[in-house]
């Protein structure tokens, strides 16, 4: 029997570490300790203690070496283990070196370093040092906008930003636009304009509430949608800092229809609180940002449908959180012709509310790039000296203007800085009136326009409900979420079947791209790789190499063991991804590779075994690596752990394809929790021969299981496992004719594509069966 006790067993963040280990069988055990030179240690096992003094290695001071502490007899069952360490000179405090690992073995001739050669990449206790675990983007990260050299380069990038914005909110493909059932009531005529109460249904039963300000006359008039932002009174805010009804009145006096509407949880929009939801809802891309974005799209539908509105002249403006809603809307809605996001687009603050931070929205960008999606249409940036837009004149504005320059439309973008705190005050509004009068209404002579005196209606005259909507008539939050969730299930099924009926190529192109954007995947080319070989060892019939696989400019690190028979003939390769890391593929009793890798070597295959993100050598035997986190919106700015692990599979596949000593034929095997990572990686990868996926009895229909094991926001909204299986089952996919997808340990799982190349079984496959498929 053999027991390796590393950091998974003990908390070694303090000088003494203790825990228990299960002894499988009674026997005499040698005790081996991995410790640095110049230290002494006590190892307590059950009732016995061992004193270990590790002399200093003068050629390599501080180097960790293995030493035999002695032998003891242990009965079967749990054994208490504790380590106590200190320097030989008895000095030092909490930071002195400690035991990295302990090995118990019934083999008296054991060489622990030989055992670890197929478990660890390093011969010293250290972690891989993956920058993805050490750094985190967040809403207050300082961003720099990339340079774009042509409209073609920008538009390819912009198309992905738009698609990701839709994916982030469950709006890809766009859902059916159900009847608005709009009601315009309680009109107050003020001569130059009128104001009415409005409600309509963005989804069946989900109300958007607000006020409509209409100029006197028949039209056709331009129209402006007005999201309000995080002011205390929302769309009813009428203060020196911001007057939402005041700007709507003035726009109406200028001959433009203005619609002001509630953010979620404000005033009359009370079916949801403003902040709500969690990871289960995010799996389906259901969250406050998504509900507000769809409300804004339907607001455009509402004003466009008014008989007195010019459908070709629709604009949008809002400040603060309303500024976020403004640029989110024009990012995905081509009907917005002129826009003014006020006091919001920043390189240093991306929005501080849940309603501004959709998952996956900023995986590769900041609000500057989203703002630039308006190009070349007219865009006004109003900034303030007293908030996060203080640098707009010399940072954000020039960055966005560089995109307008590509179109020869620099005169279509303008910045007006205001010496004030965070606001949409009179000076800021006047800048917007002048811009909209020129670019939306087509009026001349408004360069010095000043806002006239206005009289705002009492709140009670503008409100639709004294309290919340009648719950007997309108569904509550939970009912609406279930309704939207079912709509997304139905949309996925219908869309998948429609694409497949039209031909697999369209489905493959569209859904593979969507899957890549949701996961945050970058498929690296060979020139993007920066691998480092840590060591090389020659054995009887094969070589083993230890690698860190990295991508340039990312500084990630994928620890890997590469086995290759001593045969000069280019070999087929197998990538094996185990949920517990490459150590799970080693021979735990005798050292060397375990039976699966031994069997593949016997078949003449080259084998790569990796530790995916935050597994195995991502940790030191001395300390567990914790992913650095900052802020409350991690999934807005970087891929989740599951997304990074799928990325690592693709990085490893790219490395295998770059090897000139291989044939180019690759099989992919995912075991334990690694099965699902490999399923999605295979769905994104061309030209794999065999793909073997261990579903590990995962319940793919259970949202809690997804959150607990494989959290990726928005993934279920595009079909998750069924989409991956469809991509692998269609002609031209990774499991095309002559290739094969084998899924096992899969209960109640069925491919949406009937294909002889796809085999799904609820049963397990032992090593012999795996080798037979791969043979």
What does this structure look like?
The protein has 775 residues and is of the alpha/beta class. A 9-stranded mixed beta sheet has the order 9-10-11-13-12-14-15-16-17, sandwiched between helices. Strand 16, helix 9 (396-406) and strand 17 form a beta-alpha-beta unit. Residues 6-16, 90-96 and 732-738 have low confidence and may be disordered.
Could you give a quick summary of the protein structure above?
The chain is α/β, with parallel strands linked by helices and 775 residues long. It is 28% helix and 25% strand.
Return residue spans where pLDDT drops below 50 for at least 5 consecutive residues: 6-16, 90-96, 732-738
**Strand arrangement, largest sheet?**
9-10-11-13-12-14-15-16-17
How would you describe the shape? elongated
Number of helices: 20
List the helices and strands and how they pair.
Layout lengths: L1 E4 L10 E8 L3 E10 L2 E7 L2 E7 L9 E11 L2 E11 L13 E5 L6 H5 L14 H4 L16 H18 L14 E7 L3 E11 L2 E10 L5 E7 L16 H10 L3 E5 L17 H5 L4 H17 L4 E11 L1 H12 L3 E7 L24 H6 L6 E8 L9 H11 L6 E9 L4 H14 L19 H4 L14 H26 L1 H16 L12 E7 L3 E8 L8 E8 L5 E8 L16 H8 L3 E5 L23 H4 L3 H18 L3 E10 L2 H11 L5 E5 L8 H7 L10 H10 L10 E5 L13 E3 L6 H8 L1
Parallel strand pairs: 12-13, 12-14, 14-15, 15-16, 16-17, 21-22, 21-23, 23-24, 24-25, 25-26
Antiparallel strand pairs: 1-8, 2-7, 3-6, 3-8, 4-5, 4-7, 9-10, 10-11, 11-13, 18-19, 19-20, 20-22
Helix pairs in contact: 12-13, 14-20, 16-17, 17-19
């Amino acid at each position: 029997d053999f027991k390796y006790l590393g950091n998974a067993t003990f908390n070694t963040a303090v000088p003494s570490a203790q825990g228990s280990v299960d002894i499988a069988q009674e026997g005499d055990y040698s005790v081996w300790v991995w410790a640095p030179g110049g230290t002494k240690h006590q190892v307590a096992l059950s009732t016995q203690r061992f004193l270990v003094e590790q002399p200093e290695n003068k050629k390599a001071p501080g180097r960790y070496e293995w030493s035999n502490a002695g032998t003891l007899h242990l009965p079967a069952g749990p054994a208490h283990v504790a380590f106590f360490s200190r320097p030989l000179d008895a000095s030092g405090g909490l930071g002195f070196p400690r035991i990295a690992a302990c090995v118990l073995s019934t083999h008296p001739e054991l060489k622990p370093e030989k055992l670890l050669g197929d478990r660890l990449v390093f011969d010293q206790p250290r972690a891989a040092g993956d920058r993805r675990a050490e750094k985190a983007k967040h809403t207050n990260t300082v961003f720099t906008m990339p340079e774009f050299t042509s409209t073609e380069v920008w538009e390819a990038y912009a198309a992905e930003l738009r698609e990701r914005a839709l994916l982030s909110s469950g709006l890809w493909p766009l859902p059916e636009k159900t009847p608005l059932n709009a009601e315009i009531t309680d009109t107050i005529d003020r001569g130059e304009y009128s104001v009415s109460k409005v409600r309509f249904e963005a989804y069946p039963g989900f109300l958007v509430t607000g006020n409509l300000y209409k100029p006197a006359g028949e039209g056709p008039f331009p129209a402006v949608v007005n999201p309000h932002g995080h002011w205390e009174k929302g769309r009813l805010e009428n203060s020196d800092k911001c007057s939402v009804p005041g700007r709507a009145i003035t726009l109406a006096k200028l001959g433009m229809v203005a619609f002001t509407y509630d953010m979620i949880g404000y005033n009359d929009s009370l079916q949801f609180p403003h902040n709500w939801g969690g990871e289960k809802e995010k799996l389906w891309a259901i969250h406050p940002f998504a509900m507000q974005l769809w409300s804004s799209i339907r607001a455009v539908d509402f004003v466009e449908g008014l008989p007195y509105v010019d459908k070709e002249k629709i604009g949008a403006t809002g400040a603060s959180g309303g500024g976020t809603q403004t640029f989110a809307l024009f990012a995905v809605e081509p009907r917005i012709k002129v826009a003014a996001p006020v006091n919001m687009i920043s390189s240093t603050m991306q929005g501080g509310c849940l309603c501004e931070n959709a998952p996956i929205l900023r995986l590769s960008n900041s609000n500057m790039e989203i703002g630039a999606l308006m190009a070349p249409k007219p865009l006004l940036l109003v900034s303030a000296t007293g908030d996060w837009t203080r640098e707009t004149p010399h940072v954000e504005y020039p960055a966005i203007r560089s995109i307008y320059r590509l179109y020869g439309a620099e005169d279509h973008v303008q910045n007006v800085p205001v010496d004030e705190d965070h606001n949409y005050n009179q000076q800021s509004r006047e800048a917007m009136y002048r811009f909209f009068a020129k670019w939306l209404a087509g009026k001349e002579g408004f360069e010095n326009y000043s806002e006239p005196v206005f009289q705002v209606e009492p709140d009670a005259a503008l409100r639709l409900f004294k309290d919340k909507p009648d719950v007997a008539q309108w569904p509550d939050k939970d009912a609406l979420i279930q309704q939207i969730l079912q709509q997304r299930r139905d949309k996925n099924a219908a869309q998948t079947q429609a694409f497949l009926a039209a031909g697999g190529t369209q489905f493959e192109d569209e859904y593979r791209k969507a899957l890549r954007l949701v996961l945050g995947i970058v498929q690296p080319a060979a020139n993007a790789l920066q691998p480092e070989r840590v060591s090389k060892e020659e054995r009887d019939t094969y070589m083993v190499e230890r690698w860190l696989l990295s991508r340039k400019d990312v500084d990630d690190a994928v620890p890997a063991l590469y086995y290759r028979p001593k045969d000069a003939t280019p070999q087929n390769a197998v990538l094996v991804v185990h949920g517990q890391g490459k150590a799970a593929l080693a021979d735990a009793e005798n050292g060397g590779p375990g039976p699966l890798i031994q069997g593949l070597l016997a078949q003449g295959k080259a084998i790569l075994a990796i530790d995916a993100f935050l597994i195995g050598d991502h940790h030191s035997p001395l300390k567990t690596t914790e992913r650095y986190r900052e802020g409350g919106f991690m999934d807005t700015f970087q891929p989740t752990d599951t997304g990074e692990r799928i990325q690592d599979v693709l990085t490893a596949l790219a490395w295998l394809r770059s090897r000139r000593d291989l044939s180019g034929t690759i099989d992919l095997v995912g075991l334990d929790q690694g099965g699902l990572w490999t399923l999605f990686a295979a769905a994104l990868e061309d030209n794999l021969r065999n793909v073997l996926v261990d579903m590990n009895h995962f319940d793919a229909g259970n949202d809690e299981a997804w959150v607990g094991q494989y959290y990726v926001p928005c993934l279920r909204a595009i079909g998750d496992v069924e989409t991956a299986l469809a991509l692998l089952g269609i002609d031209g996919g990774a499991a095309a004719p002559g290739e094969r997808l084998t899924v096992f340990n899969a209960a109640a799982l069925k491919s949406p594509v009937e294909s002889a190349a796809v085999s799904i079984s609820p049963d397990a496959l032992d090593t012999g069966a795996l080798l037979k498929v791969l043979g």
